[in-house]
């Protein structure tokens, strides 16, 4: 399948146009928007594979030159004949048997006019000897690309998840703690099988992290928004807040406004050095529902300007 047609872009499209086309299709075909649709899931995989090829300038150039196919595998070329050993010496040896050793000196026997002595067994033996003069090169199997969707907490904490490979095989993938969206895991030997004697390719698994309703990731830090009541904001309080490790208690300082941010050290995502990022808690002051009569009366008595610093001067 032509990746340009898959993304619906011309061959002359620049990287910005290719990225824009991919984002539009990926948003429309994402499995979260098409639950249970096998066709949408397949199209989503095709679009992701096409973007993976065309977004890489090296791969795109190789594809345009016909060196690789749409899946990134080298194209195979065939010739009518191919010698494993030296073609000239093999030909001279074989035809020497057929024509009495006169190949390259004209047709005739050693004395220039004798009858060539030829047996098929000699020809077969000479061909085998020429073929074994240089060891044949075995072809490694091509790598295969897959996309694995994981939830936010699995990517943050690490875990195992099943992945179905081509042919219906399933493997268990170990997702490392702190895995990032778009990162790639390599599964050795799980790609396309090589030619006889050749090694199998690898499976390259791209991690796609599903959004979480509470947590947002920025680098190795985690951000959450925490609703607090008016009394909690005015008087201060000890409240529970969710973290990727579970609920913990934090202190809301008295007189806290919406937008105030509190930091929980070491409650974020694991870093490569073994340390963890932080969690940032942004407070959101929420009015009572239904409206409180005393609060309404207080508001009528206490009218104060909170936007004076934003007035032009």
Can you walk through the features of this model?
This protein is elongated. It has helices spanning 3-7, 15-29, 38-54, 57-64, 87-98, 120-131, 152-157, 230-235, 293-301, and strands at 144-150, 159-164, 170-175, 184-187, 203-209, 216-218, 221-229, 237-243, 246-252, 261-264, 279-286. The protein contains 9 helices and 11 strands. Helix 2 (15-29) runs antiparallel to helix 3 and helix 5 (87-98) packs antiparallel against helix 6 (120-131). It is α+β, with helices and mostly antiparallel strands and 313 residues long. The model is unreliable at 78-87 and 102-116 (pLDDT under 50). The longest helix has 17 residues, at 38-54. The strands form 4 sheets. Strands 6-7-11-10 form a 4-stranded mixed beta sheet. It has a 3-stranded mixed beta sheet with strand order 1-5-4. It has 4 domains: 1-77, Orthogonal Bundle (Helix Hairpins), CATH 1.10.287; 87-131, no CATH class; 138-211, HSP40/DNAj peptide-binding domain; 216-301, Urease metallochaperone UreE, N-terminal domain (HSP40/DNAj peptide-binding domain).
Shape type: elongated
Distance between the termini: 61 Å
| CATH class identity of the largest domain | Mainly Beta
In helices, the fraction of residues equals 25-40%
- What's the CATH topology label of the largest domain? HSP40/DNAj peptide-binding domain
- Beta content comes to 15-25%
Largest sheet: 4 strands, mixed
Total E-strand runs = 11
Run of helices and strands? HHHHHHEHEEEEEEHEEEEH
Order the strands across the largest sheet as they lie in space: 6-7-11-10
Domain tally: 4
Let me know the CATH homologous superfamily of the largest domain: Urease metallochaperone UreE, N-terminal domain
CA-atom Rg in angstroms: 34 Å
Quaternary structure: single chain
Q: What is the CATH-assigned architecture of the largest domain?
A: Sandwich
Helix-strand category: alpha+beta
Mean pLDDT: 82
Q: Which stretches are poorly predicted, pLDDT < 50 over at least 5 residues?
A: 78-87, 102-116
Helix tally equals 9
């Amino acid at each position: 399948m032509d990746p340009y047609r898959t993304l619906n872009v011309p061959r002359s499209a620049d990287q910005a146009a290719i990225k824009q086309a991919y984002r539009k299709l990926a948003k429309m075909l994402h499995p979260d928007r098409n639950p249970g649709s096998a066709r949408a899931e397949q199209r989503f995989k095709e679009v992701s594979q096409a973007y993976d090829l065309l977004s890489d300038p090296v791969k795109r150039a190789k594809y345009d030159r016909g060196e690789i196919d749409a899946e990134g595998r080298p194209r195979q070329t065939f010739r009518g004949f191919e010698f494993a050993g030296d073609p000239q010496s093999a030909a001279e040896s074989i035809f020497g048997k057929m024509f009495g050793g006169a190949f390259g000196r004209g047709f005739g026997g050693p004395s220039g006019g004798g009858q060539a002595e030829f047996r098929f067994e000699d020809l077969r033996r000479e061909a085998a000897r020429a073929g074994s003069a240089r060891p044949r090169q075995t072809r490694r199997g091509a790598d295969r690309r897959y996309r694995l969707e994981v939830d936010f907490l699995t990517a943050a904490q690490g875990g195992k998840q099943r992945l179905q490979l081509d042919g219906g095989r399933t493997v268990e993938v170990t997702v490392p703690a702190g895995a990032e969206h778009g990162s790639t895991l390599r599964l050795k030997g799980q790609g396309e099988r090589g030619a006889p004697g050749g090694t199998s390719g690898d499976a390259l698994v791209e991690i796609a992290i599903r959004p979480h309703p509470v947590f947002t990731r920025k680098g190795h830090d985690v951000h959450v928004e925490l609703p607090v009541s008016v009394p909690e904001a005015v008087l201060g309080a000890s409240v529970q807040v969710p973290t990727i490790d579970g609920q913990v208690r934090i202190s809301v300082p008295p007189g806290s406004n919406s937008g105030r941010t509190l930091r929980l050290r070491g409650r974020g995502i694991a870093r490569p050095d073994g340390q963890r990022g932080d969690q940032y808690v942004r407070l959101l002051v929420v009015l009572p529902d239904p409206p409180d009569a005393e609060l309404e009366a207080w508001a009528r008595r206490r009218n104060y300007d909170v936007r004076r610093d934003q007035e032009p001067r």
